[in-house]
Give the backbone structure.
Amino acid sequence: MKLSPLFDFRGLLKPVLDFSHKNKIQLYLVGGILRDTLINRRKEILDFDFCLESGAVEFAQKLAKQMMAGFVLLDDAHGSCRVVKKTKDGYYTLDFTDFRGKSLKDDLHHRDFTVNCLALSLETLFEAREEKDLQAAVIDPWSGLEDLDKKIVRVVNKSTFDEDPLRLMRAFSLAANFNFKIDPLTKKLINLKSKKLKIVSLERIRDELFKLFSLPESYAWISALDKAGLLKIIFPEFDKMRGKSQGPYHHLNIFAHTLESLSQFDKVIAAQNKNKEISAYLKEEISSGRKRTALIKLAVLLHDIGKPATMRKEGKKLSFHGHERVGMRMAQEISKRLKLSNEEIQMLSKVILWHLRPGYLADNAVISARAKFRFFRDAGKEAGSVLLLSVADQRATKGRLSPAATRLHHEKIAFNLLKEYFKKQKEEVLVKLVNGNDIISSFKLSPSPLIGVVLKELEELQAIGKIKTKEEALIEAKKIIQNEKKIKNPISSVKKNI
């Protein structure tokens, strides 16, 4: 008989057992590790949760010293702390908490969902000989094993969301990660208690939200959050997008189009799963474990957030001029609320600001080398993100003035540019033909913004192959300087001509 994965952990947990015996402490293994191993689910980073009657902090501090491990106090008031042990392959964590009540049963009753309300005496793990011994020894007062078997997320008690409103989000991230269904009565309770999410810190909400963004099918779960009344609490700006028509180019209102864009983005990514370059690009970590894919999905949700503020009626036509810039600023404020890093804010800003550019490029019969260069220069490393979002955005646009041929042409252009983007990443960076000092000394100029203008123009000309030597660069620089002076002082130019 194949032993349970729990048996594999006995080597790691033997020091914990020995120390508990020495201190005459009864430890219970609880939480995710027990749930996961019972359904043969493995995690990259092992995190063991234990509960004991009392004295968790003091016990863990001494254990950490004994194991030569790190100690972190999580919540002194509730006796919650963590021991972090490094290994040659990485690290694992041991969390300890005091009973939430007078007994183990009370403690389990105060946990969130039945599948997380299982416990196992640490001694039993070492005494058991076969998997059936462990199954029989699992402490399960709230039918968690049955719900695991049925793949159901169900609250332990009606006060679950009152005790910690973040559990409103966790119900969805748990169901999404395990492909479980949320129990109907639990869904009703979520709808009833949804407003309680307002008192939860946005950092905690952010972490649950990104669990959904990290899944292959984010759309279904983000839509479920919306139906439960939770999405509007996280993003109150969405209320102004609901029901707002976008004119004949679109078949959906602004908010419905946003959700449909996310649905299409999930499909775009799934279709590119075997493309090694795109897959590697999307898996890049931007900050704090959050990857590019997840952040693009947030950008998809925010890409048209500036439309309500820029909506104008021009005769019978609706316009949203400048919505990308307004949306960028709004996204920056939302990102700050969610405590995203500067790198993440910069990424989101670029993706939202330039999300219309691929469409403008696709409108041209021929895309010039200059236009391509400017797009790749402006979007930088996020050019790939912009192009992928653009494809999803276009697929979600099916109004009577957006024929299928237009969408297909747009998509073809976007994927061609995407290939070109990855090709450029492999090319050596061009060494500049001249620098600022060369311009200043050659033309007897003083340092000024004009120098930057000249260098930017020369960079573009070099990139598209118009200049290849320093001499050619200086000839073009002279023309640029003369042209700039004419623009800055048109009256004197006219007098000279007279």
Q: What stands out?
A: Residues 491-498 have pLDDT under 50 and may be disordered. Residues 129 and 239 are 57 Å apart (CA to CA). Residues 404-426 form the longest helix (23 residues).
